[in-house]
């Protein structure tokens, strides 16, 4: 049928077909109209389609405007059938419309549609099938399908091309099967699916390309059996309330020039399927409560997903609902693992509007998830629940990881750990931040919980972990919680972990937590707690401030109730009450882990596991303002391998029941403020730098042992052995996992004979041998010190530095050590008035005890002002130490000299000791020598010294001798008498000032002298001077420990002959009395006074001759002999000591000269020199104590030689008066620097 050049073609059929061409007849159907072609089927064709062509019969419809194929039926009818390789074409200048008209292209048939405007299918069914059949739609503008169904199968092809406008599908079901292909291209505008169902299976392919957006609203996309869908949007790709299911090795590729948004849309990738979203700007997942039961992105059973953006990936939810889940499709995990890679060049952000408990990310079994972004950020309580059987892999890498939950407490959903921010089970989980990793929650659950897994967290600058955990009894409130797993934190910057009273790092069982970097833990309950063989290592600087307990390690065992009776820890977080401890421990586990007993721990953990809980600090540690620094219990270790600073309100170190704490690193500063207690535990500490110190006390206590299963020790004494026929409970009534021998070293509850090896060492039917012996060993070296704040007991004290037992209140303190050694200093508060001779500490006096042995040398220092040694009597003892089996020596610079009134001797209090021997029978001491020595050290009398009174008596004897034996000469007395005026008779006077500096005293004296001179000139030219003179001298002298004032009165007659040849002779006779008052200052601050006096007699002969030289010079040699007798005298000092002063006979000879010059007739000057010698002068004094029992006799050897040099001047002032001066210095002998100034004047009247 051919109709051409018609203006309009309209054909209508009722129950019959409109047209058809069948077989290979070569017939064609060609309709051409300048305007419209309208083909209407009134009623359905009873036997087929309204228009059918097959074979080599072509169909061509060409309209200048519209081509309309329509039906008047309420439902669509079979309108067009192109089959059996037939070819058909429809070309309309404007629109092509199928209204309630179905179309079928099959068996290699082909239909091409060209519309100058749009192509529309309303309530139509499109079926393209078999034999590479194809339908090609090309519209300049829209292609629209409303209420249409499309089936494409068996290698068939449907292609839709809209050049300038949209492809819109509303209420459409599309099935693409069996290698069929659907291509949709809207190069300029959008592709929109509204309430559409899209299914691609059996290697089918769907290609979508939009110049702008691709949108899915309220539909489903199902891709299976190797089918592939590729969506490419020039702008955005939007899925709203559309479920996407990709499974069975199918693939979905999504690309957009801008964003891809999933609103209320869940994507499932299963059974080896693949999802790829690559190189888009942003990906957004918006979840509401309507689809909260399903994850936004679900991947399982070898499914793979790759999401990559140029900017951000956003996950938003109202409340509840997981965003990303990797799981198995069956509950037993029989299918293979899934994998996903999610990468954003910008940020990955998770946000919820209302607080909920669903994890953002969930992995079950052994999957692989990699996430990478600039910033990874969220505000939900639970970041990830990650679990596997040992092979799960999770990797999160970002510049910054920041997960901050501000929410309220949420109830667990039935599993003990389903509130943790990160739950990691059975795999390797890595969180890697180039800069900052921050996990923060304002509720109590754990931030990171590693169970049978490895969690690695690293950051370049900061790892910050915060939660609101407030109760250190509950593991589930710890910031970090490892059960048979490992947590590793590493940073070049800072690790900060804090909470509100819970444990910061809790490791249990075969677990390890490593802090690799500087770590701070401010205001936590317990900084690190290791239990049941777990290890915690701090490998950098560590600071803990305002904590209850810094570190706590213990290995729990199950005990009978009566074995937990001890309650002796002093601290609110560490009180160890028997019943409450047991109940709390069991309740804690019940609350935290409902499936505890079902745990199967066969993971491959580090080979160094030895069943001992251990916390190791490999870098510097600071624990500041803590209640307790470190606690180790029950065969557990805490080891400090670097610098250490602990400031604790109570105990810095606390060990119990075989707990061990070691701080033995050498050459690093350790400052410990807080006490050390060992209750069947062990503490070893080394302080060996000038800035190291320990401030606190130590307490060593042996308590009832706890570290063993209950059993009959008498019948089962061997460790690790069982009897040949054990009965119930013989090997320890502990519930083991099986009723048979499970492992080496375990026994059933009710063993059969031979079950445990029958008396053979089987490796330990009981716990292994554990040393519960208590010890505290402290070593001080290189300027370190121990500031002792209370009574202390310890095992070994090696002091090569300083132990300071003093305090501001001078309260008595004791140190009791088994062994004492070293060469150091001990500063002590010692007080005789408090000690009173007691061999123990008293209220204000300290004490040291070594119970087994002591070696070395210790210097004791104390404040002498508070020791009151001056109150001690000769036989009193101030005890400060008792040492057993000691060859140690105590020294002290402290001595005290005390006075006994009326005694000639002061006694010296100093440090000394006495040793006694205690002999025990060998039966009492079977394992050591039968003889012990006890050495008591004390301050007591160590010697005697002469009282200062004795020396004062000697000095007084010397001063009196010096005063009475002073050698006077003619020139000193009267000047140069040859140049004096010769008027008869006259008075003369002189004064003398002498500075005395003798070996034993020094001082000064003043002499005043008045004489009357009678002159006679003989006929032979010689002159005689005769006269009398009165002398008064007063002297003030000082000496060690005293001073004195002395007076001398004397009267003398002289006869002086002056020859006319220059010779002279001077004879003097003198009698006088010398008196003194001396004061002696005793060492106790008192004073002893003495008053005394005696008479003396003296005679002197002096001669010389003057030789005149030229120019007025003269030389005069001189000689003199003086005899003095001083009477003896006895006197008593004010404290009752008797002094017996010996009499003295003195013979002093002098040889000297004067060399002078007469300046004129009236004036001359001279220099002089003398040598003097005492030929006798022996004397002394004897002192007798007040009680008459002490006597000291001092005898002075008077023989001595000394010299003097001097100069003088004589001048006649007038015919009746003359003046003279002389200066003299004595030296050698007993003279040190004795100076004398002599001056006189004479006048005649």
Fraction of residues in H or I helices: under 10%
Radius of gyration: 60 Å
- Give the amount of beta strand, in percent: over 45%
State the end-to-end distance. 193 Å
Q: List low-pLDDT spans.
A: 557-609, 708-767
CATH class of the domain at 967-1243: Mainly Beta
Q: What is the CATH superfamily of the domain at 967-1243?
A: Autotransporter beta-domain
Label the overall shape.
Answer: rod-shaped
Count every beta strand, where a strand is a DSSP E run of 2 or more residues. Answer: 93
Reported CATH architecture of the domain at 967-1243: Beta Barrel
Multimerization state: single chain
Average pLDDT, rounded to a whole number, is: 85
| Largest β-sheet summary | 76 strands, mixed
What is the structural class?
mainly beta
Descriptive account of the structure:
It is a single chain. By secondary structure, the chain is mainly beta. Among the domains are: 820-946, no CATH class; 967-1243, Lipocalin. 4% of the residues lie in helices and 55% in strands. The strands form three sheets. It has a 76-stranded mixed beta sheet that branches. A twelve-stranded antiparallel beta barrel has the order 77-78-79-80-81-82-84-87-88-91-92-93. A hairpin with a 4-residue loop joins strand 77 and strand 78 (1002-1017). The radius of gyration is 60 Å and the shape is rod-shaped.
């Amino acid at each position: 049928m051919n109709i051409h050049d018609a203006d309009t073609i309209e054909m209508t059929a009722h129950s019959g077909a409109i047209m058809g061409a069948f077989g290979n007849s070569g017939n064609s159907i060609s309709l051409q109209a300048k305007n419209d072609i309208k083909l209407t089927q009134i009623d359905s064709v009873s036997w087929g389609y309204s228009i059918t062509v097959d074979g080599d019969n072509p169909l061509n419809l060409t309209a200048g405007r519209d081509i309309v194929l329509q039906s008047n039926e309420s439902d669509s009818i079979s309108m067009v059938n192109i089959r059996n390789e037939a070819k058909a074409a429809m070309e309309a200048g404007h629109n092509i419309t199928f209204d309630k008209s179905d179309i079928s292209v099959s068996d290699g048939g082909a239909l091409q549609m060209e519309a100058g405007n749009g192509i529309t299918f309303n309530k139509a069914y499109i079926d393209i099938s078999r034999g590479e059949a194809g339908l090609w739609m090309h519209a300049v503008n829209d292609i629209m399908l409303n209420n249409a169904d499309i089936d494409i199968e068996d290698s068939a092809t449907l292609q839709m091309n809209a050049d300038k406008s949209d492809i819109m599908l509303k209420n459409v079901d599309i099935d693409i099967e069996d290698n069929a292909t659907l291509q949709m291209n809207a190069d300029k505008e959008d592709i929109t699916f509204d309430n559409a169902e899209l299914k691609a299976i059996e290697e089918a392919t769907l290609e979508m390309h939009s110049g702008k957006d691709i949108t899915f609203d309220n539909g489903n996309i199902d891709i299976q059996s190797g089918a592939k869908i590729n969506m490419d949007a020039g702008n955005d790709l939007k899925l709203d309330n559309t479920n996407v299911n990709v499974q069975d090795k199918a693939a979905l590729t999504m690309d957009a020039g801008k964003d891809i948004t999933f609103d209320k849309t869940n994507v499932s990738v299963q059974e080896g399927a693949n999802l790829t979203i690559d190189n888009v700007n942003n990906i957004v997942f918006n979840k509401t409560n309507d689809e909260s039961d399903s994850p936004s992105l679900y991947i399982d059973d070898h499914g793979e997903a790759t999401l990559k953006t140029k900017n951000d990936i956003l996950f938003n939810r109202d409340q509840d609902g997981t965003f990303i889940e990797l799981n198995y499709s069956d509950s037993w995990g029989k299918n293979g693992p899934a994998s996903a890679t999610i990468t954003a060049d910008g940020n990955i952000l998770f946000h919820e509007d209302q607080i909920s408990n669903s994890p953002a990310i969930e992995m079950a079994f052994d999957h692989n998830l990699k996430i990478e972004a600039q910033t990874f950020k969220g505000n939900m309580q639970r970041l990830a629940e990650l679990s596997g059987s040992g092979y799960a892999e999770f990797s999160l890498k970002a510049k910054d990881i920041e997960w901050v939950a501000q929410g309220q407490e949420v109830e667990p959903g039935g599993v003990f750990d389903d509130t943790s921010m990160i739950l990691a089970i059975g795999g390797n989980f890595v969180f890697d931040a180039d800069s900052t990793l921050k996990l923060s929650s304002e509720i109590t659950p754990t931030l990171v919980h590693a169970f049978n897994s490895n969690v690695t967290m690293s950051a370049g600058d900061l790892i910050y972990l915060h939660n609101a955990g407030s109760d250190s009894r509950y593991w589930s409130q710890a910031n970090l919680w490892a059960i048979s797993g490992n947590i590793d934190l590493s940073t070049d910057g800072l690790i900060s972990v804090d909470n509100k009273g819970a444990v910061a790092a809790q490791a249990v069982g075969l677990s390890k937590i490593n802090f690799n970097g500087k770590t701070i833990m401010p205001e936590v309950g317990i900084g690190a707690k290791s239990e049941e063989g777990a290890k915690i290592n701090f490998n950098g600087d560590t600071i803990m401030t305002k904590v209850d307990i810094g570190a706590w390690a213990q290995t729990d065992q199950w005990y009978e109730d009566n074995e937990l009776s001890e309650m002796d820890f002093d601290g609110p977080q560490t009180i160890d009450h028997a019943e409450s401890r047991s109940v709390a421990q069991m309740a804690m586990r019940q609350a935290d882990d409902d499936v505890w007993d079902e745990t199967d721990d066969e993971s491959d953990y580090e080979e160094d596991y030895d069943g001992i809980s251990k916390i190791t600090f490999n870098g510097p540690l600071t624990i500041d303002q803590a209640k307790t620094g470190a606690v180790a219990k029950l065969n557990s270790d805490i080891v400090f391998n670097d610098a250490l600073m602990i400031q604790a309100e109570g105990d810095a170190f606390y060990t119990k029941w075989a707990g061990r704490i070691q701080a033995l690193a050498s050459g690093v500063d350790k400052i410990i403020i807080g006490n050390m207690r060992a209750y069947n535990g062990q503490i070893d500490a080394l302080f060996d730098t000038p800035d190291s110190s320990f401030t606190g006390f130590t307490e060593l206590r042996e308590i009832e042992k706890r570290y063993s299963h209950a059993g009959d020790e008498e019948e089962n004494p061997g460790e690790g052995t069982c009897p040949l026929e054990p009965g119930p409970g013989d090997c320890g009534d502990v519930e083991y996992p099986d009723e048979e021998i499970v492992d080496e070293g375990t026994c059933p509850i009710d063993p059969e004979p031979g079950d445990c090896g029958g008396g053979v060492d089987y490796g330990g039917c009981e716990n292994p041998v554990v040393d519960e012996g208590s010890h505290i060993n402290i070593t001080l070296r290189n300027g370190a010190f121990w500031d002792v704040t209370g009574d202390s007991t310890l095992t070994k004290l090696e002091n090569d530095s300083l132990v300071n037992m003093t305090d501001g209140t001078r309260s008595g303190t004791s140190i009791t050590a088994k062994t004492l050694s070293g060469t150091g200093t001990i500063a002590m508060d010692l007080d005789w008035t408090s000690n009173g001779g007691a061999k123990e500490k008293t209220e204000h006096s300290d004490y040291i005890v070594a119970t087994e042995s002591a070696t070395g040398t210790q210097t004791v220092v104390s404040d002498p002002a508070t020791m009151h040694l001056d109150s001690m009597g000769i036989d009193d003892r101030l005890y400060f130490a008792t040492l057993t089996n000691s060859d140690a020596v105590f020294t002290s610079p402290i001595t005290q000299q005390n006075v006994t009134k009326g005694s000639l001797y002061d006694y010296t209090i100093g440090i000394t000791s006495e040793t006694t021997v205690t002999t025990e029978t060998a039966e009492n001491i079977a394992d050591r020598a039968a003889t012990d020595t006890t050495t008591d050290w004390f301050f007591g009398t160590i010697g005697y010294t002469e009282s200062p009174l004795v020396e004062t008596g000697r000095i007084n004897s010397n001063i009196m001798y010096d005063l009475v034996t002073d050698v006077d000469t003619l020139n000193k007395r009267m000047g140069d008498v040859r140049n004096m005026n010769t008027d008869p008779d006259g008075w003369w006077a002189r004064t003398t000032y002498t500075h005395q500096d003798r070996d034993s005293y020094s001082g000064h004296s003043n002499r005043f002298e008045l004489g009357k001179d009678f002159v006679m000139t003989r006929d032979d030219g010689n002159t005689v001077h005769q006269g009398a003179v009165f002398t008064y001298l007063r002297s003030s002298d000082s000496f060690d420990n005293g001073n004195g004032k002395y007076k001398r009165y004397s009267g003398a007659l002289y006869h002086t002959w002056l020859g006319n040849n220059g010779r002279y002779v001077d004879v003097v006779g003198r009698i006088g009395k010398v008196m003194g008052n001396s004061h002696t200052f005793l060492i106790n601050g008192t004073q002893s006074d003495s008053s005394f006096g005696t008479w003396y007699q003296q005679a002197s002969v002096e001669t010389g001759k003057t030789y005149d030289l030229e120019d007025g010079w003269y030389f005069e040699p001189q000689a003199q002999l003086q005899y003095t007798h001083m009477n003896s005298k006895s006197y008593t000092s004010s404290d009752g000591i008797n002094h017996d002063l010996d009499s003295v006979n003195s013979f002093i000879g002098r040889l000297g000269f004067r060399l002078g010059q007469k300046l004129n007739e009236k004036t001359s000057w001279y220099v002089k020199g003398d040598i003097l010698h005492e030929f006798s002068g022996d004397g002394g004094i004897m002192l007798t104590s007040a009680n008459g029992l002490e006597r000291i006799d001092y005898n002075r050897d008077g023989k001595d030689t000394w010299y003097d040099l001097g100069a003088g001047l004589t001048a006649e002032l007038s015919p009746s008066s003359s003046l003279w001066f002389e200066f003299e210095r004595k030296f050698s002998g007993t003279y040190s620097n004795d100076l004398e100034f002599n001056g006189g004047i004479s006048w005649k009247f």
